[in-house]
Amino acid sequence: MVRFFLVGLLGLVVVAAVVAATVGAWEWWIPALLLAVVLVVALHDLVQRRHSVLRNYPVLGHVRYLLESVRPEFQQYFVERNFDGRPFDRDVRTVVYERAKGIHGELSFGTERDVYEVGYEYLVHSTAPVPEPEEPPRVTVGGPDCARPYSMSLLNVSSMSFGALSSNAIRALNRGAAAGRFAHDTGEGGLTPYHLEGGGDLVWEIGSGYFGARTRDGHFDPSQFADRSAHDHVKAVSLKLSQGAKPGVGGVLPAAKVSDEIARYRGVPAHEKCVSPAAHTAFTTPCELVRFVARLRELAGGKPVGFKLCVGSRIELLALCKAMLLEGTTPDFIIVDGAEGGTAAAPLEYEDNVGLPLTDGLTTVHNALVATGLRDRIAVGASGKVATGNDIVKRLIQGADYTNSARAMMMAIGCIQAQRCHTNMCPVGVATQDPARARALDVADKSLRVQRYHASTVRQAVQIMASMGAHEPSGLTTDMLRKRVAPSTVRSYSELYEWLGRGELLADPPATWAADWRAATPESFRCAR
After folding, report:
1. CA-to-CA distance for 521 and 385, rounded, in angstroms?
2. Fold of 139-516
3. pTM
């Protein structure tokens, strides 16, 4: 409320200056008029709804937009970095902001990337492009054991919980998802009214803390789960095994953000640090995990149930495949989270050094499922710095059926990457539980931006596929994505990665996988060596 006090104080100063000019020297009219202009700007900033920064920082917030307007001229002196570490070059933030605001995305003077840089990737277009479909393709999520399959968009909101995000941020994301017909993952913080009131399709994420379906001692509560998963807006359930930002570590919500409201929805004490364990208590072996997934699906009335993980050990992944074969049932989907992804606060050592990047994780999961004959039963989602249409197409080529985005969706509702999420001092009301700061985020405006961003990005992905000669994702091949591996050498993904055949691990495991296949056991996540 400091901003209101300061604006009120400024108003009193303006009145005092006018009085001084009226009864005293005329020179007082100069500061009175200048201060009056500043007051008018401040009042406008407080009541307008388009810019969250200005609502929280009236007058001062204009400095940001001034710097943004002259950024190209100063770019050579102040080199920015976009969110994948490359130098600023029409970076992802600019693309997301423009699409969210409905601004055209064309750029003059061609590419700014060094196409001869080692690591440069490109998609192969066709000299015979095909027409774009009238409606973007969708993905059916739900295997043979699923009674209520769900039609998933190519791009969806990745897991971000109420607690990490403000109530207004959750509302904006959900209303945008409802308007754009795509799914909104709740994150592991529980199912709240803010997720439900907007009418968007929900993927309810259950983490190791079982928030929203939790007994007093922190274990899974089947009755609570069955009751809440029955809600019409809950279209699927995702069991979180690990996340890309910090695989192998449980989530932490600082005490400053654990309000009475959040504590009520999560079933934890208020104003105390909320920690979800690193490991689940509902299962300890691959077979138990598979059975738990089947139990969740039964409790949820046959809705799709899957799990999310950041891939680490290939042996553990193969152990899960063996457990699925042994139990005779599978999850309906697997979401692969890349180690480079994640919006959650995490130890730096985990962010940079633990878990497989998304490309390696995707290809590993896809190969494991294909080679065990399970791929056609399980949809694969990809999550990790997916933000543009070409990101979607690349992930589809690498083995995904659909994608999820967290960071870009946050940008669409106004995130400026201030990196103040863990302090409860988010300047734009996205990642805070301070009601005064959260007020700055106008739900109606930002939900429209989410819808626009999603529609533009999916449309661009579909256009790229058509340019490559593919009517739909099934027409994409690994030869269509290529990478420069040396200054004069380019390789396709069909050459860079090994791609196993259907049932190959069951019939005759290749030498590159044989040792891991033998070591994997459905009775333990530890290898059998």
Report:
1. 33
2. TIM Barrel (3.20.20)
3. 0.85
